[in-house]
Specification:
Radius of gyration: 20 Å
Helix content: 40-55%
Order of helices and strands: EHEEHEHHEHEEHEEHEEHEHHHH
Strand content: 15-25%
CATH architecture of one domain: 3-Layer(aba) Sandwich
Low-confidence stretches: none
CATH topology of one domain: Rossmann fold
Number of helices: 12
Largest sheet: 7 strands, parallel
Bound molecules: nicotinamide-adenine-dinucleotide, 2'deoxy-thymidine-5'-diphospho-alpha-D-glucose
Mean pLDDT: 97
CATH class of one domain: Alpha Beta
Length: about 350
């Protein structure tokens, strides 16, 4: 029996992690803590919310006193920490929100764990979910390994890098059992349509312009979100204390090539003439400080813990498109209200 706190479980990746743990580990008690920001959505977890081993707590990790009381009351065995502000474009317009949640929120959780687990650190675990963006940008060649020096460029990646440093500092200074993983770009169901793939799917579906930043030459390494959740499961259970693992799909795509592939998949699914949706592609002003290329070397994870990605990108992208087309209500609900204002501010006049 283990009682695990998963933070950010109502978000995109968190909901896949919560679902996996609730279903695969009936002996574990899974407590999902989430503030339910614009990105958090309990509809992501409808299928498992009635399970006996699942519980939801609405709370803000920035509230230090609440985190401290919660840890003392609940006596968790472990934390899997995903709660974060996660969108680079939002970090450019409001960096402070990223410092508050990603840095202060993480430190609050570390303090709560350090204080409430004192004397019992070897039986507890703090797992911090991070990103490949902490390593900065690659040129045409090379890959990020666990040894690559941190070099973040956006307020988002700077805040995640800072949180990673705090996690390592609590391991080295206080002896807390910590693990960090740094993953590449995820895609799949329940992805909020501010991010490239779901935004493009939504716009193609509604015959709206598909905004591609700059010339579309930036490269991302895409991983099926359920493969990320499986990697987190493996690392959580098998990694030694203080370890770091990179997670990635060995699946690099230039944004423009990815969007063209998506257009072609959607033409077929929507019964449109081949090439019709590609006409929606619109090149817009580039993102400030836009990292050229990310590519993850996940050899360490494959060699030491036996994880490999399961899905080919074309198959995963089709499954993703199918999910969005079948879940029109989910998409309509999350794109109504404040999404419209965000979209207008982010893309108007670009
Ligand atoms: P998301 O934005 O979809 O979800 C974040 C969740 O955190 C939401 O449910 C939100 O309500 C919650 N949250 C935000 N602020 C909070 C606060 N102050 N207190 C409590 N809850 C709060 O993000 P995601 O894409 O699912 O990313 C999850 C984690 O994985 C993040 O730490 C992110 O840095 C990391 N990550 C994401 C990717 C990716 O491609 N999306 C890749 C690598 C790593
Ligand atoms: O690499 C992991 C990171 O991947 C995660 O840590 C972040 O949380 C996650 O948001 C993601 O960051 P990116 O900035 O790479 O993802 P995004 O979907 O915002 O953008 C992907 C690429 O597409 C990037 O080069 C910018 C570009 N883009 C994005 C949007 C939203 C466009 O060309 N047009 C767009 O409208």
């Amino acid at each position: 029996m283990k009682k695990i706190l998963i933070t950010g479980g109502a978000g995109f990746i968190g909901s896949h992690v919560v679902r996996r743990f609730v279903k695969n580990y009936p002996d574990y008690e899974i407590v999902n803590l989430d503030k339910l920001t614009y990105a958090g959505n309990l509809a992501n977890l409808r299928d498992i919310e009635a399970y006996d081993n699942y519980r939801f707590i609405k709370a803000d990790i920035v509230d230090a006193a609440e985190m401290s009381q919660l840890f003392k009351r609940e006596n968790f065995d472990a934390v899997i920490h995903l709660a974060a502000e996660s969108h680079v474009d939002r970090s450019i317009s409001d960096p402070t929100a990223f410092v508050m949640t990603n840095v202060i929120g993480t430190v609050n959780l570390l303090n709560a764990a350090k204080d409430s687990w004192k004397g019992d650190y070897e039986r507890k675990r703090f797992y911090h979910v991070s990103t490949d963006e902490v390593y900065g940008a690659l040129g045409e060649t090379g890959m990020f390994t666990e040894e690559t020096a941190y070099d973040p460029h956006s307020p988002y990646s700077a805040s995640k890098a800072s949180s990673d440093h705090f996690v390592r500092a609590y391991h080295d200074t206080y002896g807390l059992d910590t693990v960090i993983s740094n993953c590449s770009n995820n895609y799949g169901s329940h992805h909020f349509p501010e991010k490239l793939i779901p935004l493009a799917i939504n716009n193609i579906k509604n015959e709206l312009p598909v905004p591609v930043y700059g010339k579309g030459e930036n490269v991302r390494d895409w991983l099926w979100v359920e493969d990320h959740a499986r990697a987190i499961d493996v690392i959580f259970h098998k990694a030694a204390s203080g370890e770091t693992y990179n997670i990635g799909g060995h699946n690099e795509w230039k944004n423009i090539d990815l969007i063209r592939l998506l257009c072609s998949i959607m033409d077929k699914k929507l019964g449109r003439e081949e090439g019709a949706s590609a006409g929606l592609i619109t090149f817009v002003t580039d993102r400030a400080g836009h990292d050229l290329r990310y590519a993850i070397d996940s050899t360490k994870l494959q060699r030491e813990l036996g994880w490999v990605p399961s899905l080919q990108f074309e198959e995963g992208l089709e499954k993703t498109v199918d999910w969005y087309l079948e879940n029109e209500k989910w998409l309509n609900d999350v794109t109504s209200g404040s999404y419209q204002a965000y979209y207008e501010t982010q893309y108007h006049g670009r």
